[in-house]
Amino acid sequence: MNSKVKIARLSILSNSSLILMKIFVGIFTGSVSIISEAIHSTMDLVAAIIAFFSVKISDKPADEDHPYGHGKVENISGVLEALLIFGASVWIIVEAVKKIMHPEAVGSIGIGFIVMFISALVNYIVSKKIYKIAKQEDSIALEADALHLKADVYTSLGVGMGLLLIWITKLNFLDPVVAIIVAIFILKEAYELLKTAFEPLLDVKLSDAQINSIKAAIDKHSAVYCDFHDLRTRKSGRTKYIDLHLVFPENMTIKDAHDICDIIENDIEKSLKNTHAMIHLEACDKNCSYCKFTKKEKCK
């Protein structure tokens, strides 16, 4: 079992435990903010399950029906997770508004505060572990899962502080108000996740920093080619795809040009993890329209 699957399984186990604890305490205390946290954790659990299966599928090698592999399964899972969070946030806001209109006393505040603190601590530890593996493996599904748990840390602390304020001020309406603040925070999280996961499905280019890294790898060999153009980049899951046109002097042999292309492709793939580069060879035309050498000495 690889590290991505192991860490996704850990997320499922931790979320399941926290959900049971929050639901029990939420019902026992009558706190809508704790119930909202239980719902948030339920969404985290669904997200963790989606992440678990998506990382297993995305690691499958390319086949006849999927010649570019299965990487975009991770992006699809990220989009689904974001939509689930949107739905949960709206439900929390609706329930909190009902509580504001018909306020109820919150009981056993001390227990609720302890549960929120434990939840924040557990999610902080697990999210750090998941985020580390997500960065190592460049996994959008695991990064989304880590983002969920990171948000849960802040929302749990927020609910805990809300319960503390209720205990100090005896103002029970603060409970649904805190729940609404939590929901708004989760909505922001969902938007960021949706943007991150959805863009690769539209074949958006890589970041400027990554493109500059690609250009630097190409420029290292500028002494042996005339120019390059039509650089295109995209990402599928964790795999980055790069293609470009490289212009060589007209008198260079195909073998020599191909060998240079192999070297440049290897350099690009070394500069960025999980990268597949492909170069199209072109000969400099008679007018040297692509040639950057003013004396055209390489084309003689």
UniProtKB/TrEMBL annotation:
GO terms for biological process: intracellular zinc ion homeostasis. NCBIfam families: CDF. This is Cation diffusion facilitator family transporter. Pfam families: Cation_efflux (PF01545), ZT_dimer (PF16916). The lineage of its organism: Bacteria, Bacillati, Bacillota, Clostridia, Eubacteriales. The keyword Membrane applies. It comes from Clostridium carboxidivorans P7. Keywords: Membrane, Transmembrane, Transmembrane helix, Transport. Belongs to the cation diffusion facilitator (CDF) transporter (TC 2.A.4) family. Residues 10-202 form the Cation efflux protein transmembrane domain. SUPFAM superfamilies: Cation efflux protein cytoplasmic domain-like (SSF160240), Cation efflux protein transmembrane domain-like (SSF161111). GO terms for cellular component: plasma membrane. Its main location: membrane. GO terms for molecular function: cadmium ion transmembrane transporter activity; ferrous iron transmembrane transporter activity; zinc efflux antiporter activity.
